[in-house]
Structure formats: structure tokens, C-alpha cells
Amino acid sequence: MKKLQIILTCLISAMNFANINLPAIFTDNMVLQRNAEVVIWGNANPKEEITLTADFLDKEYKVTAGNNATFKFKIPTGKEGGPYTIKLKGYNEVLLKNIMLGEVWLVSGQSNMEMSAAWGIKDGDGEVAKANYPNIRFFSVPKLSSEFSQNNLFGNWQVCTPETMKYFSAVGYFFAERLQNELKNVPVGIICSAWGGSAAELWTPKEVFSQKPELLENYKKLGNSEYYPTLIGGAYNAMIYPINQFKTKGILWYQGETNAGNPEGYSTLLSSMIESWRKAKADVLPFYIVQIAGYTGWGDTTVRIQNAQRVVSETVPDSGLVVTSDLDKTDDIHPKNKKPVGIRMANLILKNIYKKDLGLVESPKVKSVEYKGRKAFITYDFAEGLHFKNKESKLFEVSDKDGKFFHAVAEIKGNQVIISAKEVSNPVAVRYAWSNIAQSDLYNKADLPASAYTSEKLK
Fold this sequence. Notes:
Layout: H1 2-16, E1 31-33, E2 37-43, E3 49-54, E4 61-64, E5 70-76, E6 81-89, E7 93-109, H2 111-114, H3 124-129, E8 133-140, E9 157-160, H4 162-165, H5 170-182, E10 188-194, H6 206-211, H7 213-220, H8 234-240, E11 250-254, H9 266-281, E12 287-290, H10 301-315, E13 319-322, H11 339-352, E14 365-372, E15 375-381, E16 387-388, E17 396-399, E18 405-407, E19 409-413, E20 416-420, E21 429-432, E22 442-443, E23 453-454
Helix pairs in contact: 5-11, 9-10
């Protein structure tokens, strides 16, 4: 009987010891941000001492779990390399294998970011067949929504193979492929947290709307959808918040088609969302935006979203814009030509973040507009080799103070486009490519198109 009591006591004591549990973002095959201080966190028994060792570290790290049953390590990563192992030991032992140190990027948005080769992208079969990159790793965040901030999610890191690439974000993959090739095989980890059809409000923390109630009123005008939840901040709480502590180099954003249902306030919404994400991560991360492509219908709402994205990229620090209006026809809200999108994004990042000398990788960008007599002088940055694709442009408009726009004759002189219309004697505003279906005809020598533009101050 005494022996049985001892056994039962030991079993009860063992049950009181909580195993080390790590969030799903920490699995075999993951990439940790190189040359950084990264956080590894999890759950364990209160007062449990936990040690962490890794073959890229020169010492053992120890922490004691708090009374809330959580622990956190901050460790340096050093230069790129791998594969490595990480071992955590407390009452149990957790071993993470095939870990790489490299560059980690978060990609997010709606269906055009989520879209994989399996959806039928251009040249998809050929791209899938050659997608053997053991030092590119993927983590796909599943679709989840919550009223409250969550501590964990589901998923695991996967090595890039034809089988895994086929179902991963195509833009994310092509971005990673270009990045790794130019960075001389530095490992690249891409975390994709995207939801087809989702409005930006789902990705924005709820407190933003308390501070800016007009954004909530704008959102109400969008209505409901059968494809995504309508809970403000729901996707942020369940698909972004759980990985906020995971160190990343930056964020890529491809979203806006759904908000074309009511574009009012989108620039304020997007800039507020960026600010809130950076605050939550305690890091002013680079935030780069893919401008949505043109799409038939909805009045001028698509171009208003495009313009809002341009405004945000020009006013929010450490941000940038990829223009895509030239890549596909405007009869498909899911453009199939994803490879140039990823490459253009990678080229901007390589030049601006990694300081690679790639020459001209930016689209022409309006620097200033001046009015002299009947003419408007639009000066562009990144304007080397500025030219019209079809010898002339029919996409410029000009208006006087009554706000009515007229088609303008346009000519290029150096880094300027000079426009005028016989109906306008005293121009006060200009527009370019102001249509949902306009495909840019103004390019620089890198064959990159100019964004849709208006000098008007839109909400």
C-alpha cells in the first residue's frame, strides 16, 4: 500500500510539471533574422528554469518561467548560415532542427498576395518545376479571426520545394527567389499572413478605430461578405498579433481591392495600420506596398485606392510602392502575371534596404507640379529616359478652378511632362491615368510605369 502511495505521489508531481511549449512559429526548418537580437518565447511551469543552447551561440542562456507560466529569451543571431539546431531544456527537452539564419519578411494582404501557382499564375507549371531552393523557407498563417488578441496560431515552417512552392504566395516566392539570388544564397524566410477578399479594417487593431471613429463609419459602408469575417481587427488579432515578437526585416502589403467598395479614408486607414503594426512590434520596419492593378467597373474607386497607396508610400517613412498597371489586362481582379511583381518589389528592397547598386528600379514619381499661363509642368523623379510607350499619351488631364477635367496634350522635356488643354486657360489641377482601366503609358528607361496621380487632395 505504501509503495502504491509513493507511485501516486510521483505521478501527481509529474502532472504538476508543465512541459515547455513553443508557439507554432518555432518549428524545424525556420529562418531567424540574421545579425539581430531575436526573441524566443513560450510556456512552462512557473519557476521552471529553462536553458537554451544553439550551435550558432557561444554560450548557454538561462531564464526562469514567470508566475504566468511564460518565458522569454533574447539571443543574438550573428551572420547568415545554417543548418543549426536549437535546444531548450527544462522539465522536458525541445529540439529544433534545420534552422537557418538569414532574412525574414512578412507578406500580408488579400487574395493577390495569397494567390499561389496552384491558382493558375502565368507560366506557373514551369516555375513550380524549378522551385528547388533549400535555403528558402515558407510559413503560411492559416485563416483565423478573433475578437481578442491571440497568443498562438497553427502552422509550421517548410523548405521550398516544387510541392510546397505550388501552394504558397507566388509574390512571396518570387520576391524570395530574387532576394536570395542577389544576396548570394543568404537564407530567406517568408511568413505569409493573407486572406482573400479581406478589407484592411480586418488587419487594423481595434484601438485605431476608437482614436479615429470616422474610419469605422467608412468601414460600415462596405457591407458584409461571405468570404471573410467583418470583425474589426479580427485578422490582426489572430493572424498578426501572435507573431509580433518574431523578428522580421520588413513587411510587404498587397491589398486594397475590397476597399475599392468604399475608398474614402483608405490613405488614413492604411497609414494608421502601418503605424499600429510598427508600434506593436516596437520596430519601424520597412513597409512596402504593391499597388493594386486596374479593374473594370466601380466608377473611379479602383484608381482612388491606387492613388491612396501612392500617397501613403510618399508620406509614411521607410515605405515604398510597386506599380503594376502595365502587367495585365483590366478584366481580371486576380492578375496572373505575378513574377514581375515579386521581382520589382525585391529590386526596391535590394536597393533601399540592402544597399545593392542596381541602378534605376523605381517607377517615375511626381516631384512637383507648377502652373505657368495655360500650361502645367509636372516634374518627375526617377525620370531617366522618360518616354511615352506609344509616342504620345492620352492619359493626362487638366482642370481650372471649377474642377472639371479635360483631356490634355502632353509633351516630354527632360524630366518634365508639360500639359495643356484648349478648354483650360488657368490650370489649377492635373491628373494622370485617372481611370479604373487605365494602363500607364509613361515609362522610364527601366521600363517601369508611372503611377496614377492626381494633384487634388482626396479623402
